[in-house]
Amino acid sequence: MYNSQLRTLVCVxxxxxxxxxxxxxxxxPHAVMKQINALEDRLGLVLLERSSRGVCLTNAxxxxxxxxxxxxxxxxxxVARARRLATSxxxxxxxxxxLLNPCTIFMDLWREIGDAFPRYAVxxxxxxxxxxxxxxxxxxxxxxxDFLTGAxxxxxxxxxxxFYRLGSxxxxxxxxxxxxxxxxxxxxxxxxxxxxxxxxARGDSVSVDRLRDALERQPQIDIEDTSRFYDIxxxxxxxxNRILLSLECWKDVHPSLVSxxxxxxxxxxxxxxxxxxxxxxxxxFLAVLERRRSGKKAGK
Length: 300
Hints:
This protein has ten helices and eleven strands. By secondary structure, the protein is α/β, with parallel strands linked by helices. Helix 1 (4-15) packs across helix 2 (18-25), helix 1 packs across helix 3 and helix 1 packs across helix 4 (59-88).
């Protein structure tokens, strides 16, 4: 389920020496060093500092070590789930969940239509919103996930997946708690005069670009670009004298920021992201969902 060289790195770091790690792994010290050297060559990183007193992790090695531990946990969980499914005869929908893209939307739908899938369970698959890796996560639909949920009109995302729209989230402003606007219940466009608004760079989101077009007609508002794909670092990096363009669904993401609606009509669609070539059970889920939603609309 994972690269055995990572297990060797973790063992060496825990033991503090190649010799003690070799004893624990039941291989020779030379074989341990060979695996570590191969891992460092493959990654292009120095992971261990060697000295006469033993070995210790470099900063890069510490990062790999911590991520490896999470990978081991995930692998154990994946194998355990697979074994449970093998013995129970139950299949599962694999739904991704992250801080900015939780699976709440899917679970609400599951409570409505899960009765149509009596032999299916829902397995939550965690992932990170890191802007450098989010496109790879979207591309993993069909392999790692059956569905992801969240706001989406990103052209880069939509080139890698299909999208079933459920509704929209209003664009709002995330204001630092010490900011002069933080106590307001709702903002007017004029409240942003003299302020700097941080927002995703132009060219990926139609909704955000439409808002940018309107704001650029207001020279009293400064615009500062940030990453097109938000992660928690975007919220962490928001200065106390800046305002961050956000979504109403992210109101509780960062404790130092207050989410305030704005008197404008700009929003981003949200819904289900699913593979470009979905499996039959995914297509059936969407078909059942569409029938139930159409029935509700007809009954109104």
